[in-house]
Amino acid sequence: MRNRTVLKWLHWASFFLIAYFFFVEPEDVENLGALALATHAGVGVLLAFVTVLWTLAVVRKGLAGRPGPKLPTLAKTFHPLGHKALHVGLIAVTATGALAGFAAPYVVKAFGVLPISGGWGTDTLHDFLSEVHDVSFKIMLIAILIHVIFHLWRHFGLKDNALRIILPKRLHRYL
Questions:
Q1: What is the CA radius of gyration of the chain?
Q2: What's the CA gap between 75 and 54, in Å, rounded?
Q3: Strand partners for 101
Q4: Where are the beta strands (DSSP E) in the chain?
Q5: Which residues does residue 117 pair with via DSSP β-bridges, in sequence order?
Q6: Which of 51, 82, 86, 152 is spaced 20 to 30 Å from 136 by Cα?
Q7: Nearest Cα to 112, choosing from 8, 59, 170, 35?
Q8: 13 in a domain, yes or no?
Q9: Residue 105 lies in a domain
Q10: Distance of alpha carbon 175 from alpha carbon 167, whole angstroms
Q11: Would you say 166 and 78 are in contact if contact means Cβ atoms under 8 Å apart?
């Protein structure tokens, strides 16, 4: 499998995992009980796995995307900074979620099987780290929205086919 294909899989896996967290809010998880918490933790573990793989790829080879020739100077400066911010944000959201899980005063098992927390945390620490995680997630959502708008502008405004880079070839005919 080529590097570009792996990056597409990591990109879309992280997108759908983050979308899960967007549509299934922590309040929903609290109302639905232990099974929902186990699912939330399990999807968090999957996102952590994707984050580690993607971070290793970025550390090893750097950012895959390069600013296109049609981008104005300011956009060329913003392009790598925006992608680096998304990587840092992904790590921050994953790390704060893991810390909130570790600090839980109850046992947390990903998908009801993989133990994440032994339940030795405190309510105060867990509540604080959960709040930090919530804020970092909201900041990440704003960064993702800016990212999407930027690439839609590139594709449709500048007509530089930016979406063809990350979308599977089967979808190219719709662009």
A1: 18
A2: 24
A3: none
A4: 107-110, 114-118
A5: 108
A6: 152
A7: 35
A8: yes
A9: yes
A10: 10
A11: no
